[in-house]
Amino acid sequence: MSDMDMDRRNFLKTSVGAAAVAIAPGMMLYSVAQAKSEGASSKVRWGMLIDTNQCKPGCNDCVTACNRENGLSGETKSTDSQWIRKIDIKDISTGREISLPMMCQHCENPPCVDVCPTNASMKRADGIVLVDKHRCIGCRYCMMACPYKARSFVHEPQTGQNPDVPRGKGTVESCTLCVHRIDVGGKPACSEACPNKAIVFGDLNDENSEIAQKVRSVASVQVRADLRLNPGVRYQGI
Amino acid sequence: MKLLVSLLLTLCVSLAWAGEAASPKLDIGKGGQCVEDTQWMRKNHMHLLKHGRDDALRLGIRDEKHSLKTCIECHASTKDDSVTARADSFCVGCHKYEAVKLDCFECHSGTRKSAWLQQRNAK
Questions:
Q1: What is the pTM assigned to this prediction?
Q2: Same domain as A83, residue A21
């Protein structure tokens, strides 16, 4: 490496350091959000907080938005892909009924990743659990392993996919947390579509984010927390 | 001698054919050189795509310049917004000619995003 390169590198190092000191911690978020070309960062932990008190029984807007965004048929036969489902549950002893959306919980310790024989099922550095369909052989072990029944197998040849969401026959798929939107600074379609803002999306590791402040101040639980998978999706009011 | 002549003749004929055989006429969309030299791209585009897909999916490093989506944005036909729809479409035309199986589009869309959005919003 030439001297000139070294100088340039040192200059950059010092200026970045100076900038980091100069700007307030709040501004640092901006620089993290902008570092897209650097790829997924382990400093970020994407998650969702779902307020079941705000989730209306019978409302299906999140499911419709997901289907529309990801090019799913919206059918619910056993051979159709469902990335997100609305579930109605009732506490038999009290009669209290609630409705909630259930999808891939983006676990920190995902069992689907543990069982995958080809390393196709994987967790990105920022906590998003994905299927690398270039590697998936369609064995469906991950579907068996997932305690949330979040994954689907594609049974039919696909046409007319969203250019941002490749889907193909013979592979397993599930909620991607709309990774294609997140990578350009957006948020998941379901979160955007909810009329009651019941789905809050954000970075759990960023203490100034809406989601981090909310999980700090209100009681929320992880579904099947006993499994110690540490899902990134949390629920309020169940 | 007869054998030699016939051999020469066959050789000449096949050479002549090879010379005449036109390279495929492609609908190159916008066309021209965009990210790399044309000849270089003919030889190496598959390496870019294969390397890029792992970086994009597993590490989240999205190289917009060399992504499949960007190829399609530029090279999809101006008539049907696709690189796969017809026999002379950008990807299909060449792959057919070279007899190389093209399986990207079993999962990936071969359509421009703008066209896809239009189609979806029409529904």
A1: 0.80
A2: no
Give yes or no: residues A16 and A102 share one domain. Answer: no
For residue A19, the enclosing domain spans 3-34
* Residue B89 tokens, joined: 């479409």
Q: What is the ipTM of this complex?
A: 0.79
The total of other beta-carbon atoms located within 10 Å of residue A100's CB is: 20
Is some CB atom of chain A closer than 8 A to the CB atom of B57? Answer: yes
Pick from A42, A46, A162, A180 the residue to mutate for testing the B interface (most B CBs within 10 Å).
A162
Tell which residue, A123, A103, A101, has the closest CA to residue A112. Answer: A123
pLDDT for the residue numbered B14: 52
Residue A33 confidence (pLDDT) above 90: no
CATH number at residue A228: 3.30.70.20
User: What does the alpha-carbon distance between residue B72 and residue B81 come to, in Å, rounded to a whole number?
Assistant: 8
pLDDT at B25: 84
The confidence band for A24, taking pLDDT boundaries of 50, 70 and 90, is very low
Residue from A118, A122, A105, A113 nearest A170 by CA: A118
Residue B90 CA to residue A232 CA, distance in Å, equals 42
Domain membership of residue A161 (yes or no) is yes
| Chain A residues close to B107, C-beta within 8 Å | 133, 158, 161, 166-168, 171
